[in-house]
Write a structure and sequence with these properties.
Blueprint (H helix, E strand, L loop, with lengths): L1 E5 L3 H16 L8 E6 L3 E3 L13 E3 L1 H6 L3 E4 L1 E6 L4 E5 L6 E4 L2 E4 L3 E3 L7 H4 E2 L4 H13 L11 E5 L3 H18 L6 E6 L13 H11 L1 E5 L3 E5 L2 E4 L4 E3 L2 E4 L3 E3 L16 E2 L12 E3 L4 E2 L13 H20 L12 E5 L5 E5 L4 E5 H15 L7 H6 L10
Parallel strand pairs: 1-2, 1-9, 2-5, 9-21, 11-18, 12-13, 12-18, 13-14, 20-22
Antiparallel strand pairs: 3-4, 6-7, 7-8, 10-19, 15-16, 16-17, 23-24, 24-25
Helix pairs in contact: 1-7
Length: 401
């Protein structure tokens, strides 16, 4: 029997860990149940940190962990999924295409930044969505120091006032001053279509965020959108033109395109609709997890967000349940009632909330310490020690806050 996991992000990593854990508990061997993870590189990109400086350092190796738990790594990119034949065709940078069969498939392909067809965005926009994008932005920012301080060199516009946009924007004043000098007259401007900053976070956290932006000197343009980008800067829907050499796009994400190959219902973000076991109901043998799945967290109408916090736990349940079907043991319905947010606010600290109502629990330096612990410890892979790695993937304990 073979269980394939597509994707080495948080959901894919925990799917592989959890499937291997159940295989071990049931006393099955890797020959009885082969578990394989498909990804271009055996590396976890620590995506929630890509707004930080030195993004090239924000990865973690997975090969030793996978070897420790007897999960095979298959290098390549999944190009085609045939759910009737139960095969996945992969391409590699070197060598011919390969076709792999599966008995169960876990789609953990994550998400991608949504880039609308705005004039100039593809040519002139940056982002912190992927490792390559973040490295390109960091290189560009450092290159500003070699340019004259005219034509908006010291101005950065961040398009999107949600979680990612706020974290990027509040980190930028310190990054810019380190690169351009403390006397540089830097400007950071957030452009948000909604009438309020952090539109999804509600009224409770908003005053804390607004005060942090004020403290850092981050400007906002609310209730307006980006109409066009060009070499001279960005034009807003109001007609205002802001001179800048740097526009960071942070306005929404969508499920990775591979989900479109699964003949099943999807939501407006491209996520596959799944049942409580994270199974795609209309397609035999296929599970979806992380940002590739729209899953109910509880019985109160709350659904998993496209976040690391939800992806890790969803991955653990998906991997466990895919393996459970093959091993003939009961599945475990996914549930995740605990929900917190920890928003980095740069040199203004951080903001920690709990619950879907986003009750503020910590702010400032105290919340910043928690954010740093999350970013440098909690979200990293377990050590490459078999017992510890398998124990870390108990679905009931992953991301239990």
């Amino acid at each position: 029997m073979r269980l394939l996991v597509i994707g080495a992000g948080f959901a894919g990593m925990y799917a592989a860990l959890s499937a291997a854990r159940l295989r071990d508990i049931q006393g099955a061997s890797p020959d009885d149940l082969q578990i394989a993870l498909i990804a271009p590189e055996p590396t976890l990109v620590v995506r929630p940190r890509l707004y930080e400086p030195k993004p090239e350092t924000l990865t973690a190796p997975l090969l030793d962990v996978l070897e420790a738990i007897d999960v095979d790594y298959i290098q390549g990119s999944a190009e085609t999924v045939n759910t009737e034949a139960r095969t996945v065709q992969i391409t590699t940078a070197k060598g011919p295409k390969k076709t792999l069969s599966y008995d169960r498939l876990v789609v953990a392909t994550g998400s991608r930044l949504f880039r609308p067809n705005i004039p100039g965005l593809a040519e002139h926009g940056f982002s912190v969505d992927s490792l390559d994008d973040a490295i390109a932005l960091d290189k560009h920012l450092h290159g500003l120091a070699d340019r004259p301080a005219v034509n908006g060199r010291d101005t950065v516009v961040v398009a999107g006032g949600g979680f990612t946009g706020i974290e990027a924007a509040t980190e930028l004043p310190a990054r810019l001053h380190k690169i351009l000098g403390k006397d540089a007259r830097t400007r950071v401007i957030i452009v948000e279509r909604n009438s309020a900053i952090a539109p999804d976070m509600g009224e409770g956290p908003r005053p804390v965020i607004a005060e942090a932006l004020r403290k850092l000197g981050v400007e906002t343009r609310l209730g307006v959108g980006v109409a066009a980008l060009d070499k001279s800067g960005v034009t807003l829907s109001t007609g205002e033109h802001i001179e800048t050499e740097t526009v960071v796009w942070a306005a929404g994400i969508r499920a990775a395109p591979l989900t479109a190959q699964i003949p099943a219902e999807r939501d407006k973000f491209g996520r596959l609709l799944v049942d409580r076991d994270l199974r795609v109901p209309s397609v035999a043998g296929v599970f979806a997890t992380g940002d590739a799945a729209r899953a109910a967290c509880d019985d109160d109408g709350n659904y998993a967000l496209m976040s690391c916090q939800h992806a890790t736990r969803m991955g653990a349940f998906a991997g466990n349940n895919a393996a459970a079907e093959l091993l003939g043991v009961p599945t475990r319905p996914y549930h995740q009632k605990a929900y917190v947010t920890c928003l980095d606010l740069g040199e203004a600290g951080a903001l920690f909330t709990r619950g879907w109502e986003r009750k503020v629990e910590m702010v400032g330096d105290v919340a910043k310490k928690t954010k740093q612990e999350i970013n440098t410890v909690w979200i990293y892979p377990p050590k490459a020690e078999r017992a510890a790695a398998l124990a870390s993937a108990d679905p009931e304990r992953v991301t239990s806050l």
